[in-house]
Amino acid sequence: MRSYVLRAVGGLPPDDGRVTVRMLLPGAPAPGEIDGLAVILVDATADGVSAGFLAPLTPHEAAQWWTRSLGQSQPRTWIAEHSGEIVGCVRLVPAAYPADPHRADVVKLLVRTDHRGHGHGRDLMATLEEHAAATGRWLLTLTTETGRPAETIYERWGWRRYGHLLSATLDEVVGVLTG
User: Fold this and answer.
1) How many CB atoms lie within 10 A of CB 29?
2) Directed axis angle between helix 59-70 and helix 31-46, to 10°?
3) How many other C-beta atoms lie within 10 A of the C-beta of residue 174?
4) What's the Cα-to-Cα distance from 55 to each of 30, 42, 61, 134, rounded to whole Å?
5) Is this prediction's pTM over 0.70?
6) How far apart are the first and last CA of the chain?
7) Helix or strand holding residue 153 (H, E)
8) Measured at the alpha carbon of residue 82, what is the angle toward residues 142 and 145, in degrees to the nearest 5?
9) What is the pLDDT averaged over residues 89-96?
10) Given this model, what pLDDT does residue 146 score?
11) CATH class of the domain whose range is 2-170
């Protein structure tokens, strides 16, 4: 399969507030936050979402990744909570080079399968885009898998396709070069 790379062309208004979206503090995730994020990552991976992991992903492996990742000062991470449970997340990764202070990547926009279709992803993205604009990050990029529902959702939210990647992840590789 192919992945598209998209860029933001405008902000999203927040949805009707069915979830609470908040930024996690870098370096000090609470155990419940790690567990909730691990559930989302395992769920997404099992559903075939291209999130940088291959199924089967264990809750322990997912929790270890989140613990390491949230221990860093960047990227920024937001979670969506519904009735006290973490039901979604998204991350903003600022560009690393001095020439790109206006750029950032959007990664790990994930919503638990049992909470999809209720606007939680939209709430997360709207909050991320508002923060990005307030911090001078006006050019956002992300990747998504061709043919997945996310592709249509991003386009509906005002993102535009600007390129294609062939065989972007290990599970998409169909041949191996040998010497």
Assistant:
1) 20
2) 120
3) 6
4) 26, 8, 11, 36
5) yes
6) 26
7) helix 149-156
8) 25
9) 96
10) 82
11) alpha beta
Sheet holding 159-166, edge to edge: 20-23, 76-82, 85-94, 103-111, 139-145, 2-8, 159-166
For residue 18 the two structure tokens come to 């069915």
Between CA 10 and CA 129 the distance in angstroms is: 9
The tokens for 134 are 């307030």
CA dihedral 99, 50, 120, 23 (to 10 degrees): -40
**pLDDT tens digit sequence for 107-132:** 999 999 999 999 999 999 999 999 99
Encoding tokens for residue 60? 């322990």
Q: Environment class of residue 140 by beta-carbon count within 10 Å: exposed (0-12), middle (13-18) or buried (19+)?
A: buried
Residues 23, 148, 66, 160, CA torsion sign: negative
The total number of residues shown for the chain amounts to 179
Q: Where do we find the tokens 């959702």?
A: 153
